[in-house]
User: Fold this.
Amino acid sequence: MAFELKILGSNSAAFAHNRNHTSQFLRVQNTYFLIDCGEGTQLLLKKNKVKLSKINNIVISHLHGDHYYGLIGLLSTLHLFGRKTKLRLFGPPGLKEIISIQLKYSTTTLSYDIEFTEWIPGESQEIYEDQHITVTTFPLNHRIPCSGFLFREKPKKRRINKRLVTKILTPLQINELKNKRDVYDMSGKLLYEWKTATLPPYSSHAYAFCSDTKYIPELSELLNNVNLIYHEATFTEDMSERAALTYHSTAKQAAELAKNANVGKLILGHFSTRFKDLNPILEEARTVFENSELAIEGAVFNT
Ligand SMILES: [Zn+2]
Ligand SMILES: [Zn+2]
Assistant:
């Protein structure tokens, strides 16, 4: 299991029908990301039994309140709990200033450091990299600067074929084989050829978070073959004019993107408050892309 995505909140604009503002919690191996932080995210983290100490990275898609009004509350709580570990915060221009002013006027000096990375509106850039994954932004088309995030595992190493490799090897020798190099014993005699001693690597997975946006058909190229994609579906097709006017998408448009990008699974979210029943959104998407699901709060998606 490479990715585990937990939906915390998935409604647009206002709280309605027991649905909350956008927030998701993503685990990629041992790295964790909070994606957007609408009002009430702290409570949703608690409800979903997510330990606050696990939050080391927060990415914010844009500065509409339903995507970040929970941030200052969460940052303050981490401070009250005496957090010492550095927190990485990735957000649009302006966010650092907003947080600084809020802290300044409450005369708060946080107990931990925030490493703030400002992503550049209108550009695609790699904002995070570690041993296993990269996170890349991509521009969306919304009323204010808004970014999507592509979480992608790096290519994995080849695997040792344990049925064939029966001699005891050192960690260095194992690493050599995984890196496509043959290994020899002390006298220079060939022990194993990497070609026969290893198996192809497991495939690398990817998750794309497409926050508030008008439909961008061209995204299908960038997001080609990702395993899991979240895309806003604020409206259904009968409200397509309103969707265009407010720089949002319909369920059908989200599904078109998923289909054209040949993704594994589509998760629909950012529901308009006018939908008490979300089935019309799901049904509309499934007519275009069968493997569509709703971002129901508390739902977990694995790749
Ligand atoms: Zn929104
Ligand atoms: Zn928005």
About this structure: The chain has two domains: 3-156+202-302, 159-199. Residues 95-105 form the longest helix (11 residues). The longest strand covers residues 3-9. Residues 3-156+202-302 form a domain with the Metallo-beta-lactamase; Chain A fold (CATH 3.60.15.10).
